[in-house]
Amino acid sequence: MAKSNLSDAVLVNNYIAGDENSLALLIDRHQSRIYGYIFSKVSDRDLTEDIFQETFFKVIHTLKSKKYYNEEGKFLSWVLRIASNLIVDKFRNDKKMPLKRDTEEFSIFSNIKDSSLDIEKKLIKNQVDIDLKMIIQKLPHDQREVIMMRYYSDMSFKEIADFTGVSVNTTLGRMRYAITNLRKVIEKNKIYLPS
Questions:
Q1: What are the DSSP calls for the chain, one per residue?
Q2: Inter-residue contact 132 to 178 (CB < 8 Å)
Q3: Does the keyword RNA-binding apply (predicted)?
Q4: Start and end residues for every CATH 1.10.10.10 domain found in the chain
Q5: 102-195: which CATH architecture?
Q6: Under CATH, what is the fold of the domain 1-99?
Q7: Residues of the chain with CATH 1.10.1740.10
């Protein structure tokens, strides 16, 4: 069996047993989701890189010391918890750091970029992104969290459930309520969202 087909649990055990390449495979497998999750919280590339590296430093330290790690098939959720804790620590230590910065690159509703957009369309699109972000920030925390993980980090509902410690049904319910609440605010404020 090719190493790339091995489960996270097997790769973790191989790494603990001394196979350094197994960790490289785990990082390659999950780096875009972890990076996207961190960026969705801090909106700064340099800070995202720092926290990403610090996250894997902690992963390596924990796995090498063979302490405090219980696999249960949830490697990605475990790593995201480490990243989340590091982000919270950073916010606590640097109260001046902004929580969000509006960037076109990581907008949850601009996954597909069209380089042929003219200036007027770009301005409209930027305003729509800003409006959506403001609306999303007004959602209850649990609904906002599931929207951010689903769209920014491209996490599956099962991964979100594992990370938040609730059932998949609860996660789906939170997403449903979030979308319903977003629609209500959009209709009430007569916000125009071009397709």
A1: --GGGS-HHHHHHHHHTT-HHHHHHHHHHHHHHHHHHHHHHH--HHHHHHHHHHHHHHHHHHHHHT-S---TT-HHHHHHHHHHHHHHHHHHH-TTS-S----STT-TT-SS--TT--HHHHHHHHHHHHHHHHHHHTS-HHHHHHHHHHHTS---HHHHHHHHTS-HHHHHHHHHHHHHHHHHHHHHTT-----
A2: no
A3: no
A4: 102-195
A5: Orthogonal Bundle (1.10)
A6: Rna Polymerase Sigma Factor; Chain: A (1.10.1740)
A7: 1-99
- C-alpha span between 109 and 125 (Å, rounded): 10
pLDDT in tens, the chain (195 residues): 566 788 888 888 888 888 888 888 988 888 888 988 888 888 888 888 889 999 988 888 888 876 656 656 688 888 988 898 888 888 777 654 444 444 433 343 433 344 445 676 667 667 777 777 778 888 899 988 888 888 767 888 888 888 889 998 999 999 899 888 888 877 776 666 655
Residues across the chain? 195
Question: Which tokens in the block code for residue 49?
Answer: 């890189």
- Amino acid letter, residue 96: K
The predicted model scores a pTM of 0.53
